[in-house]
Amino acid sequence: MFIVMIGPPGVGKGTQCKRLVNQLGIPHVSTGDMLREARKSVSHGEDLLAHMDRGRLVSDEVVTELVERRLELPDCQNGCLFDGFPRTIQQAETLDKILGKHGKSVGLAIEMSGDDKLLVQRMLKRAAEEQRPDDTVETLTRRLEIYQRETVPVAKYYEERGLLCQVSGIGTPDEVSLTIRQQIRDNGGKYRENSS
Ligand code: AMP
User: Fold this and answer.
1) How confident is the model at residue 3 (pLDDT cuts 50, 70, 90)?
2) What is the whole-number distance in angstroms between the Cα of residue 193 and the centre of ligand 1?
3) Cα(58) to centroid(ligand 1), Å
4) C-alpha 130, offset from chain centre
5) Is 2-186 assigned to CATH 3.40.50.800?
6) Checking phi first, is residue 25 left (phi over 0); if not, alpha (psi -120 to 50) or beta?
7) 139 Cα nearest atom in ligand 1
8) Span 144-163, mean pLDDT?
9) What is the pLDDT of residue 134?
10) Taking residues 169-194, what's their average pLDDT?
């Protein structure tokens, strides 16, 4: 099953995705992680740095090319959990085309929500703990604005296709995890027997 996780920065998507991939037995495809890795390389580095450090989105072309290559690997043939992708309508449309070429499609989109104050606190804590240079107060504000403008329409895109479920990101990681797993079960996703 191909699952898309949508949510504003700081809502806890990364934490929940890491838990879910073990339980679902599908790989975690995080475009943020892939871009942080890609920007270490000489050919991509400077362009990516300029966008990511300012809290802006990297171009749809760069991101979808990375995703397309990732999806060709054998571990993604039966599904994956997309984290931070698609973030624009164009990315959502391109993803449909990429999967469609192989007779596959997105099975479920999960939208996590949280209130802005809590998101700011979480982001600042994470920036300090993980030393993420692209997470600063200025970039956070910009990222929340960009999320509203570019990514909220993506949730609507999946809602119109009957694929969206909404989950509150407020609560302990265990509580949120439980709700997400329930939503996936209700929507046809399978768990490994040893999942907790
Ligand atoms: P994340 O770790 O998902 O918060 O992503 C960190 C940064 O990587 C974002 O602020 C963007 O600059 C960039 N990024 C990650 N995913 C995407 C995407 N799907 N489209 C465009 N830019 C992205």
Assistant:
1) very high
2) 33
3) 7
4) 18
5) no
6) left
7) 10
8) 96
9) 66
10) 80
